[in-house]
Amino acid sequence: MKGHLSLLLVVIPLLAAPVTAALTRARLAWAIAFAVTTACVILAGMQLWAVLNDGIISYELGGWAPPWGIEYRIDELNALVALIISGIAAVTLPYALLSAEQEIPEDKLPLFYSAFLLCFAGLLGITQTGDIFNVFVFLEISSLSSYALISLGQKRQALTSAYQYLIMGTLGATFFLIGVGLIYSVTGTLNMADLAQRLPELTHLKTVHTGFAFIMIGFALKLALFPLHLWLPNAYTYAPTVISVFLAATATKVALYVMLRVLFTVFPEGFVSTTPASELFILSGIAAILSASVYAIYQANVKRLLAYSSVAQIGYMALGIGLASAMGVTAAIIHLFNHALMKGALFMAIGAIIYRVGACRMENIQGLGRQMPWTFGAIVIGGMSLIGVPGTAGFVSKWYLVLAALEQEAWITVAVILLGSLLAVVYMGKIVEALYFRPVEETNVDVKEAPMLLLAPAWVLVIANIYFGLQTEPDRRGG
Q1: In this structure, are residues 176 and 136 in contact, taking their beta carbons and an 8 Å threshold?
Q2: From CA 164, how far away is CA 230, in angstroms rounded?
Q3: What is the reported pTM?
């Protein structure tokens, strides 16, 4: 059974997507999507357990042995990322029942759930495949469905945001494909394990270095790595809230996973040090943390504030990659996991406010903290994790990142990490001030707490933030 887990994780949502698209009843489409994501989180958990106990799983598609055939190759890292994606999707679907019904026309809901499952399948496929061209195929599946999902937002800006993301995403995919083509031209293989064996003898070739650069730029665009992040703020702001939750917690994490895979398992050890990649990651991370955090402080729309915060948090992951040490990569992987928890919880809590008042600008949410205490609590704890307060998940990854920087006596990097946390105090403090320390508007006097279907998924992620803030051993999370 364990040999088929990786294939089932991709095939089940792919087959379910056209079924949901053919339905006319929105609730039935939701039920199928929810069943699929629940099944996938169980399968992903079984897969991670199998890898931790029995080692790497290799699945040959069609009986064709690698490197000639496509191989799904599962180790601890991609098994963990697959579990994160599946877990977030399974938590997001109950939230989607009310949130999507409010923000998306009823006749479009079956198509919405179909696109959601396609995006879900594409993201899972990227994590499962051991073939670098197959990464491109699944990248396109997830990207095309993401454009459609973002365009379903209530405001007209959703269409322009989706179009902007389409242009940037297409450029990223093109750069990645060119890079893959260049690497294939000198190695004659697309299997990542086979590439890892052949590339050490070819690293002196300019073609290899050029292909590496194209691949990195391509996924830097998908990761929204500064300064290639311009698509992200609008996409997260104007997408339906449930899609902001899902993409913020999964899409950029998958892009980071591919970068880690290419940097540290496909290309030989020490190759990164022969290129300016490490320095560029560190510079980009520093610029992202400082500039995006400052931008977040001046945002009046809370979803846009959290979107810029995501750019800053991606900067922390970039720092971990740029430090190019075991501790730095560990910090990046842990922050990948923790950021999915904290940002998922925050977007869900803001979505609960949108469900009640129909807006999330600072002037629209004034004083709602007393009327929506459970929503307010989720925002406070999620914000504490984002800041890196001890006892929350965000502290753990930032602590490892500081240790990684101290190992290399990178004092500027340490200062930037601490300054970024202080800036996060400021922009999260703005939300807390508006919710709790300002008088409630007359139009919001009768606002009640959000429904349990919105609160429960948010608090699942909030509790996870606390649990993994106290459970600090990275090896227990696959790090």
Answers
A1: yes
A2: 9
A3: 0.87
